[in-house]
């Protein structure tokens, strides 16, 4: 019942992952063991691997953007069975709590993101080990492994026809960015939207703005190589803050007659978060924070910016409820109403997983899909 399989283990901060043989314990009550087919790299994995601005927790199996198939289920699991196709999600949906019952929130009391916990909720233990020594989990998903164990509420059951090498990126980045725009900022048709950070998440936010009918989509990134690619996602204008001596808020205010209607921050840099907020027009502007900040970062702005009737919001997973909403996003892709291919810039074998980190560090990739079943 214990499975021996390969996993990419992060042994220490910033050290290349090592493919190891790990033991994966059977799923306990309300848990599910999943065979991962494809996983992709999101910047959040990279932060916790670098552990520069985040709590270090090692050895750990990272990974949270993925797709796979249920191998076995633990006691009490009735919603899923062996053979079901699933997307694991870092912020789950128990279906029972006040948040799950609220139309507004996806911040499940039981299964909301917890980056510092490296064990299962039920018994405080890990399901991964090497020679009896436990290896920590990551955000309840740990998808850099041939098999993983998650809480049943962290798995969205999707259409089995879906190609898993594509829909795996709906398990975090693309849904997060699109939802940040469509569910949280909710831009009106014809409005102006600024997107800070044009990686996978930011370009998904741009895609959301395009779908909502925004007339101007201004992309801001320190990496000008992003601009060519961003045109495919409806970005109409570009600003590289490094090209200007004055604050980028002023540059944007000049270009937009006082500020943008909406801005979405997808960088993880607190300075960019403040810039995104202060770039909004007074009277109606709405800013949405998506980037994961350093754990000690502090957002500092004059309260007058709020008095002047700007709104600041934030979101995990674009406010989508994973189990309720992800199957529909997969259908949108299958109906060709949502293009995922353009986000996938690289594909590597599981053995080459460290290359995915290199591409992201160099700013070359949007999403790099890692083929776990093909080895
Ligand atoms: P990425 O590395 O692909 O893209 C980030 C982009 O931001 C890069 O192009 C980079 O050049 C740019 N950037 C960095 N600092 C900047 C600055 N000061 N000004 C302008 N541009 C800047 O990363 P990604 O995978 O797209 O993730 C983006 C952010 O979203 C990360 O912080 C990640 O942790 C976060 N994230 C949040 C959620 C959520 O639910 N809230 C989900 C997924 C990812
Ligand atoms: Zn992510």
From TrEMBL:
InterPro entries: ADH-like_C, ADH-like_N, ADH_Zn_CS, GroES-like_sf, NAD(P)-bd_dom_sf
EC number: 1.1.1.1
A Pfam family that the UniProt record links to this protein: ADH_zinc_N
Coiled-coil residue spans: none
Keywords (A to Z) from UniProt: Cytoplasm, Metal-binding, NAD, Oxidoreductase, Zinc
GO molecular function: alcohol dehydrogenase (NAD+) activity; S-(hydroxymethyl)glutathione dehydrogenase [NAD(P)+] activity; zinc ion binding
Subunit structure: Homodimer.
Protein name from the UniProt record: Alcohol dehydrogenase 1
Lineage of producing organism: Eukaryota, Viridiplantae, Streptophyta, Embryophyta, Tracheophyta
Gene name for this UniProt entry: AdhC4
């Amino acid at each position: 019942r214990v499975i021996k399989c390969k996993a990419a283990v992060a042994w220490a901060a910033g050290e290349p992952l090592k493919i190891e043989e790990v033991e994966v314990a059977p799923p306990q009550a309300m848990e599910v063991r999943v065979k991962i087919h494809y996983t992709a790299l999101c910047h959040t994995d990279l932060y916790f691997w670098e552990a520069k601005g985040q709590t270090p927790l090692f050895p750990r199996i990272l990974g949270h953007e993925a797709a796979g198939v249920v191998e076995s289920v633990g006691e009490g699991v009735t919603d899923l069975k062996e053979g079901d196709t699933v997307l694991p999600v870092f912020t789950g949906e128990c279906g029972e709590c006040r948040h799950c019952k609220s139309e507004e929130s996806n911040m499940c009391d039981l299964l909301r993101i917890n980056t510092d916990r490296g064990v299962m909720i039920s018994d405080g233990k890990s399901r991964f080990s090497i020679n009896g020594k436990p290896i920590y989990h990551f955000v309840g998903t740990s998808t850099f492994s041939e098999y993983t164990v998650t809480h049943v509420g962290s798995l969205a059951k999707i259409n089995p026809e879906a190609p898993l090498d594509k829909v795996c990126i709906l398990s975090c980045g693309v849904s997060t960015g699109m939802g940040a725009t469509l569910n949280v900022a909710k831009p009106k048709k014809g409005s102006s939207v600024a997107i800070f950070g044009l990686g996978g998440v930011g370009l998904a936010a741009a895609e959301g703005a395009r779908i909502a009918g925004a007339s101007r989509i201004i992309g801001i990134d320190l990496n000008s190589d992003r601009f060519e690619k961003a045109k495919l996602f409806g970005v109409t204008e570009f600003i590289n803050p490094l090209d200007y001596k004055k604050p980028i808020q002023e540059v944007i205010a000049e270009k937009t007659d006082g500020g943008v209607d909406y801005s979405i921050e997808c960088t993880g840099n607190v300075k960019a978060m403040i810039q995104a907020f202060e770039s909004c027009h007074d009277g109606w502007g709405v800013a949405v924070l998506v980037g994961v900040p350093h754990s000690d970062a502090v957002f500092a702005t004059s309260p007058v910016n709020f008095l002047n009737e700007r709104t600041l919001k934030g979101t995990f997973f674009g406010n989508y409820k994973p189990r309720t909403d992800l199957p529909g996003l997969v259908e949108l892709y299958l109906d060709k109403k949502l293009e995922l291919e353009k986000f996938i810039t690289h594909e590597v074998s599981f053995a080459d997983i460290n290359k995915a980190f290199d591409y992201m560090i160099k700013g070359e990739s949007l999403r790099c899909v890692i083929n776990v079943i093909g080895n």
